[in-house]
Amino acid sequence: HGVDPDEGDVSKGVAALQGIVREGLGRWEEALSLSDYLCGDEPGLLDCRLVSKLWTVYNLTESGLAKLGSPFAEIAPLTFAYLERFSGRGSWEAVFGLGREVTPGGNLDVYILRTVCQKIYGLSPELLPVIQEALARSRRGEDEDVVRAMSRPALPEMCNSEAPPTRSEEIELLVGCGRASYGDAVLDGPEFPRSAMLPECSFSASVALLLSEAGEAYRCYRADLADKPEWHKKVNAKMETPGLRLAQSQEWLDGTDNIIDTLVVKSALVGSLASARPPTMAGASKDGLDVQMAAFALLMAPAKPNGMRSFLLQKHGVDPDEGDVSKGVAALQGIVREGLGRWEEALSLSDYLCGDEPGLLDCRLVSKLWTVYNLTESGLAKLGSPFAEIAPLTFAYLERFSGRGSWEAVFGLGREVTPGGNLDVYILRTVCQKIYGLSPELLPVIQEALAKAREKSSRNHQNGAELPCGSSVDDDGLAKGSNWEIAKGIPPILSALQSQRGKKEKVRGLIKRAGSISTSRPATTSSRLLRFTPSTLYFLILEKSWWFCCLLAMIMYGLPIVVVALISIPLRFDNDTEEAEIFYNGDPPPQVIMAFRFAAANVISMGYGTVFPTSNVGYLIATLSQLSGILINVFVFAAVLAKFQSPKADVVFSDKICLFTRDGVRHLCLRVGNLRCHTLYNPSLRLFVLKEQETSEGEDFVKIVELPVALPGTISGFYNITHRIDEESPLFSLSPEDMKNPDNVMAFQVIVTALDPVYQAEVCAKCSYNSASQLELSKRFADMMVLRDGRSTIDFAKFDELQDVMRSPSSSSLYSQRSYSSRKAQTTLCL
Predict the structure, then answer these.
(1) Rg (CA), the chain
(2) Where are the beta strands (DSSP E) in 433-552?
(3) What is the spatial distance between Cα 334 and Cα 311, in angstroms, rounded to a whole number?
(4) 551, 555, 558, 562 alpha-carbon torsion, rounded to 10°
(5) What is residue 190's three-state secondary structure?
(6) Closest CA to 598 of 577, 618, 627
(7) CA atoms 769, 771, 774, 777: torsion sign
(8) pTM of the model
């Protein structure tokens, strides 16, 4: 830029560069004074080339890394408005992700600045004060998730990571993972199949949390602790976790303390986090506050003698050969309670062990404390009282820390500690796997703990297969494709693609469900009066897929061709192309080939081809073949035409049925979707409840009672079928708990019929819901209406999504306004 790098007076170079930048922004102002975008009323090629670079300039200047002397919005107001305008477009959100648009208040983007600062610090460490000031300014006022984590949450994976390269380009961390279910017949049962895995090892998590809290980027490799990969031996001879490798290194470090001590020395960011000191009080140290091993000893105390039990009990001064187990249990309970007492004393002074923000000691211990919480609350290690009663400040500390962005980045979405005292299935399932292998006699305690954990956990964590962010995990898709991610920040474009893919998978699932809802009865022997007739074949063609129809047509043509060909082999034929075939091939075709040509031509085309008979018998066979061909062609053509004309419902129903309160009155609600999204007229919606009834004579039967619902005039994309449970409702006398009891309500059934104006025929579909497993209390369906570029669209990825019912609509004006505008859009589009 024409500035002498050896000029002694730095201010001259700064002034010259400020002038160059201001001059460039002046050209932007001149161009944008003519239209909204550089290329007119809509962005063009030049806009797309330059807008992201302009955004970087804005962040550099506003953060103070590149000082212009005045705010960006004052120097170039039209250019600032241009950034606001462009960042509000759908293309911006698709590329950069949600919440990264430029706002009138002049927000800064932490992702850009953190990446730039990483590079600058590597080149010019002397600029650290400027870098820290810029980062602090960009993070100021931001949500804690963005301030500390600057990352997307960890995504579940089905498989171990691929083997790491020989040499690292950045910090690499090996993390031990567990699964919510392994599909084991004893510990999981058929209702919990093998699920995806997420970080579980508390030692690995302590290192990952330290890196995340410090803002140090790293690459994460995952290993299933119950099924470790072969390459694990190369990383750690004992196949332990964690393992860490510094940037530009080939050597893997092991041992949690060794890894953390090395990071404190080698990483300036981690070193700055280590400067925060814990309180100066007795026992406020790593060893004094670490009660994880004591909790494991308490867990193993009731077990039969084994090597692990002896090691744990002896470590805490308890005789493993003591005949009275209750003495050992009491002693270990005292040790755990004493350790939690030290936590209470330390946390009475500040929110975290190291002050108002987490420090090195917090990161070392919080994941171990979380494991202790899960062991004690699940009943594996019994303390005699709830954790929150024994250590209320410590429980609040877990709540507080698990709400930070670093926690979400390491453990994934939805695994925070809640006031209700939820349990983490990933931790408990992994621990139970180990315990059951050591002490099978503890199986009843293990099964009780897992049942309690799964009961308290959300459905997402029971299956380990879904994420609120819309990511979908499957064996052939994202799970195998995402063997690693940058734990300090998955690139937003990748996150957007993953989110988009998750939505597509959800919509594909809806289509499959709609395809399984037949417009007529299933083709079974019981529905065909136990006999096969031509009408059965007709129904099969209409009900089955096109692949079935094609296979059936091939059989119908192929079978007569084979039969006729075999009968015709002894016949003599005249071949019109015999001379040509001898000329080109050297020999005439064999008799078998001639017979098959003769049969195929007569059956398919109902006439002779190049091969025709020379005897009366041959002509008779040809005539019969042509007659059969006429029948087959008529049948196939009629079946294809009928299948094209047969309307498919393309109607799908929600997975769950909800019970919630609206305006003080309980309502029962389910959702129906029309995947073709064209209008269905005169819909008939009927909702029934199936209840077991016993007469005065002792006869048991299922009573079907219709529940009145409001009917729309038409259905376009979707409709929420709602029944008001007032004094006239058959469900009025039942409490929510009674409705989930199969003895009171067996099931709900919904039937939908409507006129399809395209087919000019009626479509119909039905669905049944089990009251015990599919009725959700205090939940409502999420809003499917999305506003994009000023237009309302339906997001079918949210078709089954449920939300907690808002207790007080006035508590959030923003929510109320959004719901109101969304309802208006829904009414406009659907009705």
Answers:
(1) 35
(2) 484-486
(3) 18
(4) 140
(5) coil
(6) 618
(7) positive
(8) 0.44
Q: How far apart (Å, rounded) are the C-alpha atoms in residues 268 and 257?
A: 18
The single residue listed with the structure tokens 């389910």 is 670
Compute φ and ψ for 687, nearest 5 degrees. Answer: -115, 130
Alpha-carbon gap, residue 611 to 616, rounded angstroms:
15
**Cis peptide preceding 242, ω within 30 of 0:** yes
Which pair of structure tokens corresponds to residue 214? 């410090």
Give Cα 138 distance to the centre of its chain. Answer: 30
What sign has the CA pseudo-torsion 251, 256, 259, 262?
negative
Instruction: State the first-to-last Cα distance of the chain, in angstroms, to the nearest integer.
Output: 61
Q: Rounded to whole angstroms, how far apart are CA atoms 460 and 502?
A: 14
Phi/psi class of residue 464: alpha, beta or left (left: φ > 0; alpha: ψ in -120 to 50)? Answer: left
CA distance 537 to 517: 20
**Long-range contacts at 761-767 (CB < 8 A, ≥ 24 apart):** 761/647, 762/647, 763/519, 763/647, 763/648, 763/649, 763/650, 763/651, 763/680, 764/519, 764/649, 765/517, 765/519, 765/649, 765/651, 765/653, 766/517, 767/517, 767/653, 767/670
Residue 449 tokens read as 């703990």
Q: What is the mean pLDDT of each run of 10 residues along the chain (831 residues)?
A: 89 91 93 91 92 94 91 91 89 83 84 89 88 82 36 63 87 90 81 83 91 88 89 88 90 92 89 74 72 93 91 91 90 93 90 89 92 93 91 92 88 83 89 90 91 68 34 34 33 42 57 48 39 62 76 88 90 82 82 89 84 86 90 85 70 90 90 82 89 77 88 86 90 84 80 82 85 86 80 82 65 37 41 36
Lookup: tokens for 156? 């579940």
